[in-house]
Amino acid sequence: MNSLNTAAIVFLAAICTFATRITPFLLFGSKKGVPDSVSYLGKILPAAIMGVLIIYCLKNVSFTSMPFGIPEIFASSLVIFLHLWKRNTLLSIAGGTILYMLMVQNFFDSLFYFFM
Amino acid sequence: MRKTLEFAIKQTIPVFCGYIFLGIAFGLLLQKAGYSFLWAFLISLLVYAGSMQFVLVGLLAGGASLPTVGIMTLMINSRHIFYGLSFIEKFKRMGRKYLYMIFSLTDETYSVLCSVKVPNEMDEKRVFFMISLLDQIYWIMGSVIGALIGEKIPFNSKGIDFAMTALFIVIFIEQWKDSKTHIPALSGIVSSILFLIIMGPDSFLMPALITVVLILLMGKRKIVKKIDYDKKLSEKSELYESRQEEMI
Fold first, then answer.
1. B186 pLDDT exceeds 70?
2. Rounded to a whole number, what is the distance in Å from the CA of A66 to chain B's nearest CA?
3. pLDDT (tens digit, 9 = 90+) per residue, B121-176?
4. Residue A111 pLDDT class (50, 70, 90 cuts)
5. Distance of residue B152 Cα from the nearest chain A Cα, in angstroms
6. How far apart are CA B53 and CA B50, in angstroms?
7. What does the alpha-carbon distance between residue A93 and residue A40 come to, in Å, rounded to a whole number?
8. Inter-chain residue contact A54 with B212, CB threshold 8 Å
9. CB A92 to CB B66 under 8 A?
10. Record: contact A16-B165, CB cut-off 8 A
11. Per-residue model confidence as pLDDT tens digits over A32-75
12. pLDDT tens digits, residue range B58-98?
């Protein structure tokens, strides 16, 4: 593919991405002010969207085949536990991520073969 | 100014970890598809959308047509339509930075901006802008590093993308603790799981988000009442406390 073609695709992807992000501002950002129900949604939607994003991150986890989502369950539980305990954002994220990396990289395989 | 920057950096450390390594993965993928680091730089500068950029590599390599690229991009990024709703007034007050704030509203930046508690002595607008800018700098850095030397990095980063999941979980907990009603949080989780089971991982997101919005709109009166009721209660007790202090 030549560079011009590549550039066209990249610019189109850029414009379409920006279009999705600017839509609410174009719809409700007029001088009249934000409609009541939209400012209400703006206030309470973040909590809901965090829930949706968590599931979105875990959407490809399979509970019916190896490793049955066990790394995700363990690591997520550790994040929740650490955060309820210490309420230190970096500690919670680092703890969960390190455990997850250990589990998906080799720890989990070795454990599996050990018991088989 | 320096304090503000330090604060913004601290808020974005989780995103730094995620973006650097995801960016490297993207740059590496793009380089393997036959594109130089300049393209990695340009795409991360102009498109700046995590998961979409991975799909874009496939589209570029497969020689997809322009309509395909347009439709795919709109579909994958459609969730962003809901993010701006929380920042309409705030971004409007940001003057020249208005368009950049909208452009750079990724999942991760959105999450950090939703949860950041800016100290009183700092300028909130400046903090917001720095967080957004830093996040994109991390992403561009990662992409370029990945395209340039991604293959030579000996570090096994498999699984590091879990940092983003962990970030969302932490913010979810924070908002849960702060909120007077758990209806929004629960409706987000439940409707996502429901539509994930019904429609599968590739197409559940928009139906789930639309359902959440509908649930929240239908329950508006109840939720507002709950929030206001608690606010009134706390105002009353504050008034009570201040009166007691006066009496003493």
1. yes
2. 16
3. 999 999 999 999 999 999 999 999 999 988 788 777 788 889 889 989 999 999 89
4. low
5. 19
6. 6
7. 30
8. no
9. no
10. no
11. 778 888 889 988 999 999 999 999 999 989 888 878 899 999 99
12. 899 888 899 999 998 998 899 999 999 999 999 999 989 99
For the purposes of burial, counting CB atoms within 10 Å of the CB of B30, is it exposed (0-12), middle (13-18) or buried (19 or more)?
A: buried
Average the pLDDT over B204-232 and give the result: 86
Report the alpha-carbon distance of residue B75 to residue A104 in Å, rounded: 30
Residue of A nearest to B206 (CA): A52
Would you say residue A16 lies in a domain? Answer: no
Which three-class secondary structure state does DSSP give residue B139?
A: helix
Residue A3, in any domain of the structure: no
Task: Domain count for chain A, please give it.
Answer: 1
Give residue A41's identity as a one-letter amino acid code.
L
Q: Which three-class secondary structure state does DSSP give residue A88?
A: coil
What is the spatial distance between Cα B129 and Cα B104, in angstroms, rounded to a whole number?
Answer: 10
Does any domain span residue A48? no
Tokens of A53: 């994003």
Token pair for B14: 């989780």
Residue A77 lies in a domain: yes
H or E element, residue A95 = helix A89-102
- H or E segment and range at residue B62: none
Q: Exposed, middle or buried by CB within 10 Å (0-12, 13-18, 19+), for B12? A: buried
| Dihedral in degrees, nearest 10, Cα atoms A38, A42, A48, A52 | 90
What is the interface pTM, i.e. ipTM, of the complex? 0.88
Q: What are phi and psi of B138, to 5 degrees?
A: -60, -45
Is A25 within 8 Å of B91 when comparing Cβ atoms?
Answer: yes
